[in-house]
Amino acid sequence: MLVVEDEMMIALDVQMMLEDNGYTVLGPAGSVEGALRLLDELRPDVAVLDGNLRGRPVIPVARRLRSLEIPFVLSSAYDIFTFDGSDVLAGAENVQKPVSENRLIAALQRALS
């Protein structure tokens, strides 16, 4: 499980939720570059992505995940993504922020099925 989130407290909270539910967490990665480096070395089963990382859209990470056929869910305060390339996010469930453990785990189960 890859967690991509630039706000450290949220990242740690999501990591704890996932670990409490039996997931092994890679990262968390706080930037597009950090997430791409992790994906160069490791292949997670699924990922949780924040839509905006330090002012940069998560699009390059989503593209890499799609190319590797790794499902992902979004954990973003944004409902609509209007930046270039946001079509790569189509079909990914957004569990919204603040992240609810029940919503997150259910969305991940759906993404993996």
From TrEMBL:
The keyword Phosphoprotein applies. Pfam families: Response_reg. InterPro entries: Bact_response_regulator (IPR050595), CheY-like_superfamily (IPR011006), Sig_transdc_resp-reg_receiver (IPR001789). SUPFAM superfamilies: CheY-like. Residues 1-112 form the Response regulatory domain. Keywords: Phosphoprotein. The modification 4-aspartylphosphate is found at D50. The keyword Phosphoprotein applies. This is Response regulator.
